[in-house]
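Quick illustration, no need to memorize.
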Amino acid sequence: MSHWTLSLAQLRRCVPDIFKPGNCLYIGASRDKFAHGATEMLRAGRKIAILEIWEPNVDYYRRRKEIASVILGDVRHIVDMKLPHFDVAFWWHGPEHIKREELAKTLAGIEAISNLVVLGCPFGYTEQRDEEMRGNPHQVHLSGFLPKDFETLGYRVDTFGQEGGWNTSNILAWKRRGTK
């Protein structure tokens, strides 16, 4: 079974309301990962805005009619962007691309502009494979996280696979506004 098939089942079981109408800030729209989660959310009636750090991806997504808006920016500075409020912030396989010490502040910024934060990342540290880089310097994995890293910040967590399993493991973490 593919990583995405397992991840989709995990999302449907743990946070099924992301597949309902509303708006969504999709953070870090990697061309490889975006097609999976976004397709399901769009099909459910979600309007998607993308926050993307790499300009070639911004240009690519601005040409896609199904995307409501595309914002060039760095999630680590989300509070400075004066973004509107979103029902859901979806940061799928993004936390591993920032430094460990940036996680708490970055998540607090995302939480400030959304009712529900949903994120996914590898279970532990994994090397980013060259074929997934596609010239994007922001694709490098800078950190590896464990469930406790998100639980400490008030997130609920679900996992599959074993720590360090490249493309065979996943951490899903989510937090609703007002929970600690």
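Residues 3-176 form a domain with the Rossmann fold fold (CATH 3.40.50.150).
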